[in-house]
Write a structure and sequence with these properties.
The chain is of the alpha+beta class and about 550 residues long. The protein folds into four domains: about 10-175, no CATH class; about 205-275, Muramoyl-pentapeptide Carboxypeptidase, domain 1; about 300-355 and about 420-505, L,D-transpeptidase catalytic domain-like, CATH 2.40.440; about 355-415. It has helices at about 10-20, 25, 30-35, 40-50, 55-65, 75-85, 95-110, 110-135, 155-165, 170-175, 180-200, 220-230, 245-255, 270-275, 280-295, 360-370, 375-380, 460-470, 475-485, 525-535, and strands at about 145-150, 300-305, 310-315, 320-330, 340-350, 355, 380-385, 390, 410-415, 425, 435, 450-455, 455-460, 490-505, 510, 515-520. The strands form three sheets. An eight-stranded mixed barrel has the order 2-3-4-13-11-10-5-14. Strand 7 (about 380-385) and strand 8 (about 390) form a beta hairpin. Helix 15 (about 280-295) crosses helix 20. Residues about 5-35 have low confidence and may be disordered.
């Protein structure tokens, strides 16, 4: 949102009041006849609100007989100015123009006209800031097609009602921000990084050159040591120029923290990560503060939370994880990336068939078939003519006449041990055709970076997930699942109550140990979100050299 009283018509009207113009002349669109029937303070406020451009704010004051919320309430006004001044602590823009205008209005208040102007200005600034603080500056769905999260924004009436009962001690703004330990941790990290930026960052960067390996010596090794000390890695104090065992351990720890192969060899990727400065992390933290605001509402007593950036999924019950599992998400190529969205899981499919997406059938299976027409038989896949449904044997078809654009067949892999969806898939029907499922490719879960699917989310512990989801509705969830499994047939098990599922992308988050963790932005979405924030006034401080 981020306007914080940026309506030029309203601003001109208000400043004209301070310049000595009458409210009737300055606010030409006011309903003067009605305003004259009200007490002077209420009439002046009604006139000022009538050109404010916000019908919702006007409706609130009309319902409350144009009783001011801020004018004449010095504690509330001071709390508002303080909140606007410290907006940067939330990764929100600090609008100096608005703060200065409020201070000017505060000093000019006293008469009905100037009080009304102050009230309109304060109400507009407050509603805009409170909305941004509560649910974010951005509309996530306007950023990219891969982010499809609808925020829950409080109405101006609700926000103003909260302000009208506040004590003016700042607790109002604390209650509006996300009540989430990770949000507070991100704020603390932002403050720490800002101090680092002001102090010049983590010192000189390691110059480019040959790959650094254990046993190497030289000035580049010393700079790397000093940089890792500044980053907080222990056991490497001193001024040795030798890449010794302690420094190797520190580099491996750094690599693991940054989702790099922890081999102790400083190649191009590790060097880039080592040479990043606090403003890079600062940008990432600001983006994730915004993401947390997008989900600032009751997510459900039981819900499923998937963090694509950390390749993890959680079943949450009353705020605590009852199941934690690794996952594999979509490849980094744009068309395979797993989207961010919110839905409800409604059922499980045991012994699922895999209806091969047409893009995979034509782009991946057709080239295989041209090399070896028996590949479908070996993978238990049936090929049918699109439209008629007639089954055909790929070994008896001249496939050389088909291309990606005219491939006329649909492929379906029957249930079985080698099925791409494994033993079970977890369904929340959506327009992306994305769901959670088992997989026969278990080795991928051992990797740190797990972006290998075509968009769906593969689950390392699918049976445990099934049992956890069924536990509230059957006395023997494992027995009920295995009974369906043993039929060998595709079987649907409905969930007694749909479960909210959140497919998110949190690249800085609190891990299971309660420590703030960073993950590499594999999809490049941090940059996309930050660019949108920058367009709305968010800025980073410069490193002081």
């Amino acid at each position: 949102m981020f306007t914080y009283f940026n309506n030029p018509v309203l601003k001109a009207s208000i400043f004209s009041v301070f310049a000595g113009m009458s409210p009737v002349a300055a606010l030409a669109q006011a309903d003067v006849a009605t305003a004259l029937t009200l007490p002077p303070e209420a009439g002046a406020l009604m006139s000022a609100l009538s050109v404010s451009g916000s019908t919702e704010i006007y409706a609130y004051y009309e319902e409350h007989d144009f009783e001011p919320v801020f004018a004449g309430q010095s504690a509330r006004l001071s709390a508002l100015v303080e909140a606007l001044t410290t907006a940067g602590e939330h990764g929100l823009p600090v609008n100096v123009e608005t703060i200065d205008a409020l201070n000017l209005a505060l000093n000019s208040a006293g008469q009905p006209d100037s009080n009304a102007a102050l009230e309109v200005m304060a109400a507009g600034a407050y509603v805009d800031f409170a909305t941004d603080l509560t649910s974010g500056i951005l509309d996530p769905e306007q950023i990219t097609d891969l982010i499809n999260i609808e925020t829950v924004r409080p109405s101006p009436a609700v926000l103003l009602a909260q302000a009208a009962t506040s004590l003016g001690n700042g607790s109002l703004y604390e209650s509006l921000e996300p009540q989430d330990p990770s949000y507070n941790a991100l704020q603390e990290e932002l403050a720490s990084l800002e101090s680092l930026v002001e102090a010049g960052g983590w010192g000189p960067k390691v110059s480019e050159g040959r790959t650094l390996r254990p046993g190497n010596s030289g000035d580049r090794v010393l700079v790397m040591r000093e940089r890792l000390i500044a980053l907080g890695y222990p056991g490497i104090e001193g001024d040795s120029k030798t890449y010794d065992t302690g420094l190797v351990d520190a580099v491996k720890a750094f690599q693991a923290d940054n989702t790099l192969n922890p081999d102790g060899i400083v190649g191009p990727k590790t060097l880039i990560a080592l040479n990043s400065d606090p403003s890079v992390q600062m940008q990432q933290v600001i983006v994730n503060l915004e993401r947390r605001r997008w989900l600032n509402y009751d997510l459900g007593a039981r819900h499923i939370f998937v963090n694509q950036a950390s390749y993890m999924a959680y079943v949450m019950d009353y705020g605590l994880p009852t199941l934690v599992t690794r996952v594999v998400v979509g490849k980094t190529r744009l068309k395979y990336q797993t989207p961010e969205f919110i839905d409800e899981m409604t059922h499980l499919i045991v012994n699922p068939s895999w209806n091969v997406p047409q893009s995979i059938a034509s782009q991946e299976y057709l080239p295989q078939l041209l090399r070896d027409p028996s590949v479908l038989a070996r993978q238990n896949i049936t090929m049918r003519v699109r439209g008629s449904g007639e089954a055909v044997d790929a070994r008896l078809v001249d496939l050389t006449q088909y291309t990606e654009s005219n491939f006329p067949f649909v492929l379906q892999q029957r249930p079985g041990g080698g099925n791409a969806l494994g033993k079970v898939k977890f369904m929340f029907p959506n327009r992306f055709n994305v769901y959670l499922h088992d997989t026969p490719s278990k080795s991928l879960f051992n990797r740190d970076t797990r972006a290998y699917s075509h968009g769906c989310v593969r689950v390392q512990r699918p049976l445990d997930l099934a049992y956890t989801l069924l536990a509230p509705q059957v006395t023997d969830p494992e027995g009920a699942f295995q009974a369906a499994r043993n039929t060998g047939r595709e079987t649907q098990i409905d969930l007694a109550s749909p479960i909210p599922i959140y497919l998110t992308y949190q690249s800085v988050f609190l891990d299971e140990e309660g420590e703030l963790a960073y993950r590499v932005d594999i999809y490049g979405r941090d940059k996309v979100v930050f660019d949108a924030l920058a367009e709305n006034g968010v800025a980073l401080p410069e490193i002081q050299s």
